[in-house]
C-alpha cells in the first residue's frame, strides 16, 4: 500500500485529491496521514469528505477514516465504473474541486458519465466554473476527451447552494499535446458577477480593470446573478490566445474594497503578460495529472508553485514518473519521464 504524507509541500487538500484520482486511475490502494496538516483547520472538511466518497463511489472502493476532522484515510479502490452520479457537499465547499477529483479517471472510462454536484461554485482557493470551462477543459478536449460543464445555479461562500453538471465523453487514450506558445491574443474581457451586492461594486471593479489594462467599455461586463443566490461578488478576467486561455479571479468579501479586489486581479494579469509562457501557475498545477496519464508531452510555464511540487510527488508515488522542470529563459519547460 502506498503511504502519502499529507503535510508535504503545500500541505493542503490538493494532495488528497490527487491521490484519490490516481488511486482510481491505477487501481492502487493508499493511506494518507497528516491530512491538511499545514492548514488552520487540519483534517478533512466536508468538501474533502465528499471528494473521497465520490472517488469511492466511481471505483467501488473501501475506505477508513472518511469523516469530517479525520487526519488520516485509507482508500482501496476496485474497478472504475462510468455512469450517472450525484454528490452533495452540504456546505459552500467547492463543487469544482470535487469534480476535479473524479474527472481524471472518468476521462478514460469505457463509457460516458454524468456528474452532478451541489455546493459552492465560486469559492476562494478553488477554480470557479469559468476557469474550468475556459482554461482547462478546452485543453482536455484537444487531448480527445470532451467535457460539457454546465453551471445550473451559482453558489457563493458562505451560502452555497450552487449546482454544476458535467457530461463526460471519455477517450480510450488521451492524445499527447504540447503547449509551448500562446499564439496571438484573440480576445480579453472582464466580468464582475454580483448577487445581492450593490451594482456600484461591480462598476468600481471594472473601472480599475479598464484603467489599468487600457481596455474599452465593451470589454467590461457586469453579470447580475439572482439575489437569492447571494450575497456574492466575483471578478473574472479572461485572456484568450490562439493556443491557450488563461483566467484570473478575484473574490469580494466583507471589509474589502472593490478597488482592492480588482487591483489584485490586475497584478496577476500583468504578471502573466510580462512573460511569454503560455501556462500560468494555477493551470500548471492542474495539467500535471493529465500529463501523467499521457495527455501532454510538455508545456511551458512560470516558476513551479508548492501545489505543483506536491502534485509531482503524488504522481511519482503512484506512477514512478518523475516531473522534470528545466529553465528556458525566464520560463520553465515541464516534461515527465
Summarize the structure.
This protein has 337 residues and is of the alpha/beta class. The protein has helices at 13-26, 46-59, 95-106, 129-142, 199-213, 258-273, 281-292, 306-319; strands at 2-5, 30-33, 62-64, 72-76, 84-88, 113-119, 146-153, 162-169, 177-179, 185-195, 220-224, 232-241, 245-251, 296-301, 323-328, 331-336.
Give a structural overview.
The two termini are 23 Å apart. This protein has 3 domains: 1-78, 2-Layer Sandwich (Translation Initiation Factor IF3); 82-174, RNA 3'-terminal phosphate cyclase domain (UDP-n-acetylglucosamine1-carboxyvinyl-transferase, Chain), CATH 3.65.10; 185-273, RNA 3'-terminal phosphate cyclase, insert domain (Dihydrodipicolinate Reductase, domain 2). The longest helix is centred in the C-terminal third of the chain and has 16 residues, at 258-273. It has helices at residues 13-26, 46-59, 95-106, 129-142, 199-213, 258-273, 281-292, 306-319; strands at residues 2-5, 30-33, 62-64, 72-76, 84-88, 113-119, 146-153, 162-169, 177-179, 185-195, 220-224, 232-241, 245-251, 296-301, 323-328, 331-336. It is of the alpha/beta class and 337 residues long.
Annotate the secondary structure layout.
Layout: E1 2-5, H1 13-26, E2 30-33, H2 46-59, E3 62-64, E4 72-76, E5 84-88, H3 95-106, E6 113-119, H4 129-142, E7 146-153, E8 162-169, E9 177-179, E10 185-195, H5 199-213, E11 220-224, E12 232-241, E13 245-251, H6 258-273, H7 281-292, E14 296-301, H8 306-319, E15 323-328, E16 331-336
Helix pairs in contact: 1-2, 1-3, 1-8, 2-3, 5-6, 7-8
Amino acid at each position: 500500500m502506498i503511504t502519502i504524507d499529507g503535510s508535504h509541500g503545500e500541505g493542503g487538500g490538493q494532495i488528497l485529491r490527487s491521490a484519490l484520482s490516481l488511486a482510481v486511475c491505477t487501481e492502487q490502494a493508499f493511506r494518507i496521514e497528516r491530512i491538511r496538516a499545514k492548514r488552520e483547520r487540519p483534517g478533512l472538511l466536508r468538501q474533502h469528505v465528499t471528494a473521497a466518497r465520490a472517488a469511492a463511489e466511481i471505483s467501488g472502493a473501501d475506505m477508513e477514516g472518511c469523516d469530517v476532522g479525520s487526519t488520516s484515510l485509507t482508500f482501496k479502490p476496485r474497478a472504475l465504473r462510468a455512469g450517472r452520479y450525484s454528490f452533495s457537499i452540504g456546505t459552500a465547499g467547492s463543487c469544482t474541486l470535487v469534480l476535479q477529483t473524479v474527472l481524471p479517471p472518468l476521462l478514460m472510462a469505457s463509457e460516458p458519465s454524468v456528474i452532478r454536484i451541489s455546493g459552492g461554485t465560486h469559492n476562494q482557493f478553488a477554480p470557479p466554473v469559468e476557469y474550468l470551462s475556459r482554461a482547462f477543459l478546452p485543453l482536455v478536449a484537444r487531448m480527445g476527451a470532451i467535457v460539457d460543464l454546465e453551471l445550473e445555479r451559482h453558489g457563493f461562500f458562505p451560502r452555497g447552494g450552487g449546482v454544476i453538471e458535467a457530461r463526460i465523453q471519455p477517450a480510450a487514450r488521451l492524445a499527447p499535446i504540447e503547449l509551448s506558445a500562446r499564439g496571438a491574443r484573440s480576445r480579453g474581457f472582464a466580468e464582475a458577477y454580483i448577487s445581492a451586492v450593490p451594482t456600484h461594486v461591480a462598476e468600481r471593479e471594472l473601472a480599475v480593470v479598464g484603467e489599468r489594462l487600457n481596455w474599452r467599455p465593451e470589454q467590461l461586463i457586469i453579470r447580475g446573478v439572482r439575489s437569492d443566490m447571494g450575497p456574492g461578488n466575483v471578478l473574472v478576467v479572461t485572456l484568450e490566445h490562439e493556443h491557450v486561455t488563461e483566467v484570473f479571479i478575484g473574490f469580494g468579501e466583507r471589509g474589502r474594497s472593490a478597488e482592492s479586489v480588482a487591483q489584485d486581479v490586475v497584478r496577476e494579469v500583468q504578471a502573466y503578460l510580462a512573460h511569454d509562457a503560455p501556462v500560468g501557475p494555477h493551470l500548471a498545477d492542474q495539467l500535471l495529472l493529465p500529463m501523467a496519464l499521457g495527455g501532454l508531452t510538455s508545456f511551458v510555464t512560470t516558476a513551479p508553485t508548492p501545489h505543483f511540487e506536491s502534485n509531482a510527488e503524488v504522481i511519482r508515488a503512484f506512477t514512478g514518473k518523475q516531473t522534470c522542470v528545466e529553465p528556458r529563459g525566464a520560463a520553465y519547460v515541464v516534461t515527465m519521464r
